[in-house]
Amino acid sequence: MSTASPLTATPRPGTAGPGTAGAGHAPAGSQPLKRRIAFASYVDENYLPGFLTLLRSLALTNPTLCEDFLVLHDDLKPESIARIRALHPRVRLRAVRTEHYADFVKGDQTNYLVRKAYFILDVFTVRDYDTIITLDTDMVVLDRIDDLLRMRDGLGAVAQFFHGEDKLNSGLLVIQKEFLTDEFCARVDEIGLAGSYELDKHDQGILNALLAGDFVRVDARYNYVKRRLAGNKPVPEDVAVLHYTGRHKPWQGGETGYAPAEEAWHRYDLDDAALRAEFFALPGRKHPELVRHFGRRAHRAGSGLDIAVQLAEALMELGDYREAAEVLGCHRIPARDARAHALHGNALMACARYEEARTHLLLATAHPPTAPRAHARLAQLAWVLHDDATAASHALSGLSADPTDRMCGILHRRTAPVSGGGRPADAPPAGLNGASDQGGDRAGRLAHVAFYMDGQGNAGDKVLPEAVRRCFSDDTGPGAWQSEHVHRFVDDAALERINRQRGLVIGGGGLFIPDTSPNGNSAWQWNVTDEAMRRIEVPIAVFAVGYNTFEGQGYARERFTESLRTLVERAAFFGLRNHGSVERVRDLLPRELADTVVHQPCPTTVARQLIPGWRDPAERDDTVLLNIAYDRAGLRFGHDYGHVLAELAAAIRRIGEHTEVRYASHAVTDDTFVTDLRREHGISLPVLPMYDWSTERILAEYARTKLVIGARGHAGMVPFGAGTPILSLISHPKLGYFLRDIDRPEWGVSVHERHLAELLTERALGLLDRHEATVADVHDRQLLLWKITQENMGRIRPLLGDPA
């Protein structure tokens, strides 16, 4: 399979089209979106067989792709629509403007060529996407087409084989957002209605008259016309899209002299059962939405365990843990099938069906390939249920099977007792990062539910719990606080510990996220049932929690909403760390509860105000620190990671001409970016492994640099809290939310910005040139957040019975 670029020539001067707006030009303070991509075809009843085969071929040759598919139509029957929907999970029906070109198609309603010629041009009326790839219904996809989705500029098309390079073949178009405008659409309509083009070319004539040869040349392999294969020539191996041009179509009996081409089409003329069988037999990764779509149908038809495992894996990836457990529960899994047992155990654990999960995970430990991970999950399960001795035992067993297993290592350090008994060896201090079980009464301490980070954990989440506590007291240790890890199940003993304190603080951090440590009790990070929440007797303050879902990521909505409502009902104070989270959560609540949700900034953003004796540095290092979040890369970057990497490489070189660029790694996975940068672009950056550092060292490093360019929320909030200018690389809505809160959207650039290097460099150098003024602006913006925090604390302290 070829991996060549789809471009065979650069666009001529001026071919970028009308305007330069792209996906990245949305205001930085608004919720960012990945670049929105869709396929589109005009479909009628006559060409429905061709379109169905096109969809089958796309699924079988590009099983990792699953974008929206726009079906432009004007006469499809309900049963035809059902057949289309059976072949793709993201079909979007769109009626064409039949009245617009009525005079041109009148009396010619059965001529698909004429109808398609005008109605496919309706794609230019679409405003919901940044890139649209049109495919004719007489095409079949034979190879990977990922490169088309990575195109970012101009209007791409294959030049006509028989009429020269100056004319495009409209069978396949790659249309960028700057062409999906009212202005361009009006020009298309003007030429189309005037008829001042080659009448026998229809839509090609309209576009050729409009573009006059100014289009981006795409390699012919992406629109390889059938007529090139006359005389029974074989289909070249590198053809990605074969286009059955001409009057004779394969589903109508075909045409003599094109036998290999006809065979290529009939290869994908399958019934639904055969399609599913071939799809699930494909090796390698498949898009989870496609697996879910075809797998559910196969499951209802009585498919075997192999397809059930693939379906369950996809459902787990999409956060549908309950359905994954149900799918596997319909099968008797042989004892020797360790993969299926491990998967079933993980699904059951995510549903909080812990005893059933343990049974399946124990079966998975009997087989060497799955034993380390199964032991890691068993250790985690035991730890969640407060059984540290069993957790330590499973972690040690996992390390015996694979000494490099990271999760087993973490859980062993977290739970293994020191010689002679006592608290676990190498565990964080009980007062902050552990789970201290010592006593206490309501006169003194507060219980604190938070995500307490292990060694080599996320740097921002290390800083966060202490910053929360400093809002309440200068004492952040066990004398003032009872630690409760958010991921551990709230059992009777935990409730007793909480109820012995004078209040409960929950937060901060992005705890409203479904997949960090999934549980069926709440569907967010705190592993608590509604019944347990109602048994909490002390006042509750939800403090600086964030709604952290990525675009397209969802919750077990009913369970999450019920848990959220119970928490809001019980809380004496409910503060979320940005207005974006406030808005999202309010939308899930009835009016009487929604009004109680307020803004409480993340305490990391006011660190200078919280730490006693804080002094701003007299001088700063001549450095810029860069951070790229690499976890959940698919959700952050979509198809644009290569583009982001190249653009950041260019920006690093240009910024590096003025000041040294260093890399601030918040998590071990963030180091992947440095490796990719060196391998792909020959740039090596000094790495600061902040995941190994203390809170004090992290804050000190951020305080003495001149600028931080960060893609993590806390790679912006922590340096901002230390008084340092920031530029956010927005790959998650929360970064834009924060910039909106401080009224500085220009301090953010979407990672999907088409001209990312240019814009990032311009803004970074501008902030460096105005460094002193920008630092003063950071301090001013911080005071606004500090005022809100002080006002909220004035309300919270009496509610929690603060003796001060």
UniProtKB/TrEMBL annotation:
Swiss-Prot/TrEMBL keywords: Transferase
Polysaccharide pyruvyl transferase domain residues: 504-729
Keyword Transferase: yes
Gene3D superfamilies assigned to the protein according to its UniProt record, in alphabetical order: Spore Coat Polysaccharide Biosynthesis Protein SpsA, Chain A, Tetratricopeptide repeat domain
Residues in the signal sequence: none
Coiled-coil region(s): none
Record GO terms (molecular function): glycosyltransferase activity
Name assigned to this protein: Polysaccharide pyruvyl transferase family protein
The species this protein was found in: Streptomyces lonarensis
Native organism taxonomy: Bacteria, Bacillati, Actinomycetota, Actinomycetes, Kitasatosporales
